[in-house]
Design brief:
This protein is an alpha+beta fold. The chain is built from 6 helices and 4 strands, in the order ααβββααααβ.
Length: 195
């Protein structure tokens, strides 16, 4: 009897093994294509977020309901028929300037706003407003604050400083404003104690 001819191993392997390698290769290619598409989608989403962030920083496409400091403040109008809006701040206790001995000031400040729509803006900037008030109060000498004229001058300075924080700088010196120059129309002292 004749021996059957031996086939090389690659030819003797079942046909499933040959297709198994190609299935693995196809699966690997599909996986790589899927990862590539996922990476492209992530890159596109990141690009859109960056474009949106830049456009809102430059003012284009900004959400009109968001509260931001105006770059050019709109004119302030007061409606005489609407009731006044008052916002009471937390009490302030500061050491006065040490030129005349160790003295401190305890005061409660109430702000009169031109319109209730500025209440939200004020609340947004309240930490900076309180900081500026503390700095201004602590820079005063007791002798500057004992007279009614000194307190009125302090109230005007505080009004200008708070309006500046809210994005409404005071008019240049020597220029008389025709109306309110910012959302804060007046600073009122409910309590004013120097000790």
């Amino acid at each position: 009897m004749a021996k059957p001819e031996e086939k090389p191993e690659s030819e003797s392997a079942p046909p499933e093994a040959a297709t198994g390698i190609s299935k693995k290769t196809k699966l690997l290619v599909l996986l790589l294509v899927g990862l590539l598409l996922l990476a492209l989608l992530a890159l596109g989403a990141l690009t859109l977020l960056l474009i949106k962030q830049r456009s809102t920083q430059s003012g284009e496409g900004a959400d009109p309901t968001s509260i931001t400091r105006p770059t050019t403040p709109p004119p302030i109008t007061v409606n005489p028929s609407s009731p006044p809006v008052f916002v009471a701040l937390d009490p302030f206790v500061v050491n006065l300037a040490p030129g005349e001995g160790e003295r401190y000031l305890q005061t409660i400040i109430v702000l009169r706003l031109a319109d209730s729509k500025f209440d939200a803006t004020l609340k947004q900037y309240l930490p900076e407003v309180q900081h500026r008030i503390n700095l201004l109060l602590s820079s005063k000498l007791p002798s500057e604050l004992v007279t009614p004229q000194g307190r009125e001058q302090l109230a005007r300075e505080l009004t200008d400083e708070i309006n500046r924080v809210l994005g409404y700088p005071p008019p240049p010196a020597g220029q008389q404003p025709l109306g309110p120059t910012g959302p804060v129309q007046a600073v009122l002292f409910r309590s004013f104690i120097i000790q």
